[in-house]
Amino acid sequence: MNDKALIVAALLPALDGALDEATVTKLIEVPKTSAMGDYAFPCFALAKAWHQAPPMIAQNLVAKIDGSQFEQVKAVGPYLNFFLDKAQFSQTLLQTILTDGLNYGSTDLGHGGQVPIDMSSPNIAKPISMGHLRSTVIGNAIANILTKVGYQPVKINHLGDWGTQFGKLIVGYKKWGSEEAVKADPISNLLKYYVKFHQEDQAHPELDDEAREWFRKLEAGDEEATRLWSWFREVSLAEFMKIYDMLDIKFDSYNGEAFYNDKMAEVVQMLEDKHLLQESQGAEIVDLSEYGLNPALIKKSDGATLYITRDLAAAIYRKRTYNFVQSLYVVGNEQRDHFKQLKAVLKEMGFDWSDQIHHIPFGLITQGGKKLSTRQGRVILLEKVLNDAVDLAQKEIQAKNPDLPNQAEVAHEVGIGAVVFHDLKNDRLNNFDFNLEEVVRFEGETGPYVQYTNARAQSILRKAADVSLDAHSDYTIHDASAWDILKQLAAFPDTVIRASKDYEPSVIAKYALALAKAFNKYYANTKILVDDAEKPARLALVTCVSQVLTQSLALLGVKAPQEM
Ligand code: ARG
C-alpha cells in the first residue's frame, strides 16, 4: 500500500460514508513544510453534511480514527495532519522496492491497449531539425512511460516522403545535381538543390511548371520519377538512421506519407458519400466553420492530394490496424490547427474514435533567442550537435576520472543523455534556448548530474560489496536525514502515472532531479559505510535510490553508466 492509501484507509471508516474513496484521495494535500506533517486532510468538504465548522470536524476526527499506523495525527485549524511512522514506513518501502526490482512503479492502467505514437517524422531530402529531435525524444519517452503503465505503444515514423516538393527536388537535381554529389553527402546536396530551386524560381517561373509536371508524373507512377524519388528516400533515411542509432531509438513502422497513396481514393469517396466535400475555386474542401476552423483542403484544383488527406487515410488505417485506445501525434505546436482540423473532419465522417486522437504539441528550440529556419539556412545540424556533446562529455570525464576504463562508451552515454535530458526536463510546451555548454554541465539541473549521482551511489555499493541485501532483512531507518529520500522513493509510482496521464516526460525528469538532490544532500551529511546497526538499511536505501534513478533515466531514454 502506498503512503497516501494508508491515510485514505484510516480516514474512510471515520467518515460514515460522507465522502467516497476517490474524493478523499483527491482532497489529501501535502503540507508546505514537513514540520506540519507528511499529509493533510482539509475538512471543508464535510461541513455541509455534518453541519459543523471545519476546525471542529478536524478535532472530532482525531478522536475517531485509528492512528496506530502513524507517528501522530493532529488537528491544526480546519486540517487533519498526518505524520507517518518513519521506522515502519522505511521498512515497508525499501522491502517493496527491493522485491519489485524493475517492476517497482509498474501498473496496468492501460490493460494492454495499443497506442500508435506518430513521432520524429522528418522530411526526406532535408536535415532532421531540432523540432524533429524533440518529437523523437518526447515520443520515445512517452512510449516508455505508457509501457510502464500497461499500454502497448506503436512507434510510427510518419516520414515526409511525398508532396509537391519532390517535383522541385527532381527538377533541381536534374538541373544542378549529380549522382556522385548525392552519394557523397546526400542531405546537404539535396537541400542545396531545393534551396537553389527557390532562389531561381523567382526569376524563372517556368521552373514551377516543370516541378508540377514532375510531381504529376510521380503521382502517376512514371518510372524515372519513381526511381529518383525512392533513391532520395533511401539515402535520406540512411542519414536519419545514424541519428536514431546514436540516440538508440527504434521505430515499429516507417510508413510515411507515401504509404497512404493507394488509400486516399477511399477517403475521398467516403467524404463524398457523406456529402462533406464542397468545391471552392476548383479545389475540394471540407467546411469546418462550425468548429471555428479554416476549411480542410482535401484535393487541389490539379487533383493533387494534400497533407491532411494523407493524415485522414493514416488515422483510419491506424484504427483498423491497431484498434487503438488512443492515437498520439507528437508534433510541434505550430501544427495545432492541422490536428484540430483532422479531428474535426473525422468527427464529421462519423468516427466516434476521433476523441481518442490527441495532438501532443511541444515548443520551439531557439538559438540566441532566434527561431531556426531551414529556408533561411539557420539550421542546427543534429549529428554535429550530438557529436559535440559527446566530445564535451569526454573532456569532462578525462578531467574528473582519467583512469575510467570504458571512457569512450561512457562519454557517449553522458553526451547523448545530456542532450536528451535537457530536451525533456522542461514542460514540453515551453520554448527553450539551446546552448551546448549548459546542456553538458555536470552540476545543476542536467542529465549528467543525475547520471553522476547514480554512479556515486553505485560506487558506494561497490565499496560495501560484502553486505548482501535481501527483501526480508530489517531495513528500518530511524535517521531523520533519510526522510526526504524515502518520501521521494515512495512518490515514484504516482509520478509515473501523472507523467502518463499528462503525456509529460518532464514530470519524470523533474522527479529524477529532486531524488538526486535529496540523495546528494544525504550523502554529504551521512557516513553511509560506518559499521553500525543501521548500515544494512542505509545500503538498502542507496540500492533503491540507484534503482529508481536508473529507471527514471531509462523512461526518458537516457543511459545510466555505473561509473563516470
Ligand atoms: N513531416 C512533418 C513535418 O516535418 C511532420 C509530420 C507529423 N505527423 C503527421 N502525421 N502529420 O512537419
From TrEMBL:
Key words of the record: Aminoacyl-tRNA synthetase, ATP-binding, Cytoplasm, Ligase, Nucleotide-binding, Protein biosynthesis
Keyword Nucleotide-binding annotated: yes
Subunit composition and interactions: Monomer.
Gene Ontology MF terms: arginine-tRNA ligase activity; ATP binding
Record domain DALR anticodon binding: where: 450-564
Short motif ('HIGH' region): ranges: 122-132
Compartment(s) where it occurs, according to its Swiss-Prot or TrEMBL record: Cytoplasm
Organism from which the protein derives: Loigolactobacillus bifermentans DSM 20003
Superkingdom in the source lineage: Bacteria
InterPro entries: Arg-tRNA-ligase (IPR001278), Arg-tRNA-synth_N (IPR005148), Arg-tRNA-synth_N_sf (IPR036695), ArgRS_core (IPR035684), DALR_anticod-bd (IPR008909), Rossmann-like_a/b/a_fold (IPR014729), tRNAsynth_Ia_anticodon-bd (IPR009080)
Name of the molecule in the record: Arginine--tRNA ligase
